[in-house]
Design a protein that fits this description.
The protein is mainly alpha-helical. The protein has 16 helices and three strands.
Length: 340
């Protein structure tokens, strides 16, 4: 489900809250997702209440600094600037070991024209988390890209972390051009209408990145291990059109994720599927497992319950398909969508 209207976001939040009641073991990711939808619906006080509920739980949250950063971003949007600033400072002092809380805190400052404070937050995080010579995760690359953007707006000279962000950036438009505040002038345009349109586009792009960061789970694609796929098709042959062969299934997963990545979709992931889980989900939705329209809903629900593995893996890490080979030697290689 991809809600576009406030009422749709409220409806989706209510569905996630009901699901959290049925699956208490997955309560944290489900409540985070519900809070994100409530923010998008404009129900920011309810979103704050969910963040507070998670932070006040008897058991320590799995991602306490992420929750605090999201709460700060939300509070600032509806007039609680002082409290938001205090939370951001608390997150910085805690020096979390994962990029997401840092990036959300820095982007919150950036969104409210606190560029120097945003740059300082990004830089502190990069100094803490970037290890020289180590492979850079997708989340850390996103943080470095955000740092590059803010430093470009402040007209700061490139440093080693900016150079690393440039090397990791693979899109057609270089980061320096993408993050140029006068991008249209650099491209040769002096039309004020075009400049205004470009400013609106960049603001929209920044907003979509911040929304994506607030999502605690990825856009996910189902992966049926071969024994599970055999069992699924034996029980529901109507789904053979979706999964003609196991090899085709693996090829489709990698191809779909690459296409989504190329289109700019962030936070991609893969969720392992099982027949008993799928049948239970179908029963909860009062529909037949043979209905192919149920498959993406099943993937979304599994992802909301925190079952997704981020894609792509590191090139030296194990491939998501379970072959035992490294991702770079398997589906992550050239022509990787055709691997067994």
């Amino acid at each position: 489900m991809r809600p576009d209207m406030s009422a749709d976001h409220t409806t989706e939040a209510e569905r996630l809250l009901r699901t959290a009641g049925r699956y208490p073991e997955d309560r944290e990711p489900l409540l985070l997702r519900a809070a994100a939808h409530l923010e998008l619906a404009g129900e920011r006080e309810r979103a704050t209440a969910l963040y507070d509920e998670l932070l006040a739980a008897p058991s320590v949250p799995a991602a306490p600094f992420l929750i605090r950063a999201l709460k700060a971003a939300n509070l600032w949007e509806y007039g609680h600037e002082a409290e938001a600033r205090a939370i951001i400072e608390g997150v910085r002092r805690a020096r979390p070991a994962e990029p997401a809380p840092w990036e959300i805190a820095a982007e919150t400052l950036e969104a409210h024209d606190e560029l120097e404070a945003a740059e300082a937050t990004f830089t502190e995080a990069a100094g803490l988390l970037v290890e020289p010579g180590a492979e850079v995760s997708y989340a850390l690359q996103s943080l470095l890209t955000g740092r590059h953007r803010v430093r470009r707006m402040l007209a700061l000279p490139h440093d080693d972390h900016d150079a690393l962000a440039d090397r990791l950036h693979t899109a057609d438009v270089p980061l320096d051009e993408l993050h140029d505040p006068k991008r249209l002038w650099a491209l040769g345009s002096s039309d004020p209408a075009e400049l205004q349109a470009e400013i609106a586009r960049l603001r929209s792009e920044l907003g979509s990145y911040r929304t994506a960061l607030s999502r605690p789970f990825p856009v996910a694609v189902l992966h049926w291990p071969e024994p599970e796929l055999d069992e699924l098709l034996a029980a529901y042959p109507e789904l053979e059109a979706e999964y003609p062969t196991y090899r085709a299934h693996l090829t489709d997963i990698e191809a779909s994720l690459r296409e989504l990545a190329q289109s700019g979709t962030p936070n991609l992931g893969i969720v392992p599927a099982t027949v008993p889980s799928y049948e239970a989900f179908a029963a909860s939705e009062s529909t037949s497992p043979a209905n192919p329209d149920l498959l993406p809903q099943y993937a979304t629900t599994l992802a909301a319950r925190g079952r997704a593995t981020p894609w792509p893996p590191q090139r030296t890490g194990a491939c998501w398909c379970g072959s035992g080979r490294g991702y770079g030697e398997c589906h992550g290689g050239v022509g990787g969508t055709d691997k067994d």
